[in-house]
Design goal:
The chain is mostly helical. The chain has helices at residues 4-8, 12-24, 32-44, 48-57, 72-82, 86-98, 106-118, 123-134, 141-153, 159-187, 196-207, 212-224, 232-244, 248-260, 268-280, 284-296, 304-316, 320-332, 340-352, 359-372, and strands spanning 64-65, 70-71. It has a domain at 122-229. A two-stranded antiparallel sheet has the order 1-2. Strand 1 and strand 2 form a beta hairpin.
Amino acid sequence: MIFKDAANRGESGAQLNLALCYYNGVGVGQNELTFQKWIHQSADLGNVEASYVLGLYSENDRKIIEGLGMSSSNKYLSYAADKGHLAAMYLLAQHLFQGKGIRKDHRAAIQHLNYLVNHGCSEAFMLIGRIYAEGDVPRDYSKALECFKSAANNGVQNASEYVAKYTSIAGNYSIANSVYNKGFKFIKGSYPMVNSSEAFDLFKKYASANESGAYLNLALCYYNGVGTSVDLSMFIKCLEKSSSLGNPEAMYLLAICYQEGKGVPESLEKAFGLLSNSANLGHLPSMNALGQLFEYGQGVDEDCEMAFRYYMEASLAGYVEAYSNLGWCYRMGKGVNRDLHLALEWYQKAFDAGKTSVSAHIDQIMTDLEARGS
């Protein structure tokens, strides 16, 4: 056979072609074991197409490889995706969406799918839309609808059905949020309340469909008495439901309740757990709050290096409240080598962003630097 000699010489492309011949019975009898032998050899030599084929072939094997955190299928798909193989990237995104042989990670799925969209893959629009509409990211029906429309315009199957469904949902949810925001402006004394009961009813409607953002907004309605009477127990109940559905903002607010003993027995340990889960979903206020727990040993053993890490992560992502905490770490040498110049830089960033309460720190650091002649 034309490919066999080259395959025996270790040419990965020939090994791939030989494997496919055995799989499809082209020029030889079908032989799955021989297919497996050659496709593994080709993939192990780094052949990207072979890695994709092997990932596709072993897709139903969901056994997680110890120490790797994913199945063999996703191991090969990840390699091919990292090398820019578009079909492998799409299949990996599907697995990340479904949690198939790998930990469910909708943010990572979106990163792959955005790359695919930029390279002309129209099907990726559909999956992005589903993640924004149904997934473990902050719900955004407007973005979801936009993606479904793009998919439909490119002829993706069933996309038009999603457009019809989410045109209504996105419109109603936008109305609810608009009315809800007016209700909260009323609380601040700026605007008259307009149909706050309508917003409350719409949030109840979407909450009945296990919409985490609706449960969060319901919780805030109960807390502030928007469209309903103030009810602290319902506030907590709705926060707990939203948190269980993966809403990071609800996790953060519930953690604050446990820290302060508001509506629940005080528990710094439960607060720590909620903040950890929320921070892992990229929630910046939770990262900052988690840093404070580590810094002061609340609900967890004191660990200033971990505190510094969370403050830094939140600061680099632009969370202003973390700037001064990071400045404090550099000023006092907490979890990092003491550096007054970097302390001054982060305090100045906080001041420039409107946190004028740090001015005393800035003045003292400048005095210290002048005294040192630096």
